[in-house]
Predict the structure.
Amino acid sequence: MNSSSASHPYDYGDAEYWDARYWEQGGSSFDWYQRFSALRPIINKLIPSSSKILMVGCGNARISEDMVKDGYVDLMNIDISSIVIELMRKKCMHIPQLKYMQMDVRDMGFFNDETFDSVIDKGTLDSLMCGFDAPFSAFQMIEEVNRVLKPGGIYMLITYGDPSVRIPHLNQPGCCWKITLYIIPLS
Ligand SMILES: C[S@@+](CC[C@H](N)C(=O)[O-])C[C@H]1O[C@@H](n2cnc3c(N)ncnc32)[C@H](O)[C@@H]1O
């Protein structure tokens, strides 16, 4: 994970860090890792446009808006930062396909079990892995992602983490993922 701001590595797991960062950025947008254009072939292949999708740790990335332009109709976006959720809610209020809610991905009790066809995570598990108590945070997050997904649903994890480090977190008790790995070239 790289960042333009000099910060303590553990900051990525803190709501306060992200609130301050999004406050500084104001209404601008930034996509970590990859833009939708680079991910589009994989997303289109695995996630039908009619899917009910949960974007966890949405930040101020443009990917959800770009997915709507591409035909996706139902995207719930959550983030632990209330600042970014308010900014995005205002920015996207004219896009009915997008909803925004402040929520901790480790406790998504607001959503019933088996609500979503797909969960997209671009950099959010990675953030938790940089925080304090990272293994437990990752455990809680994956348990919740597994719970809110419909049977046969897809968790698309877009990560800079090495598979040997990330996959053990996915394969926790109660989860039985069929894992397919795609390598995306840097764009
Ligand atoms: C690396 S950024 C990625 C942002 C966006 N997904 C993207 O692709 O540009 C990680 C995001 O996860 C959010 N986040 C960190 N911890 C979280 C948590 N426990 N629950 C929900 N969101 C969290 C941060 O606020 C931040 O927006």
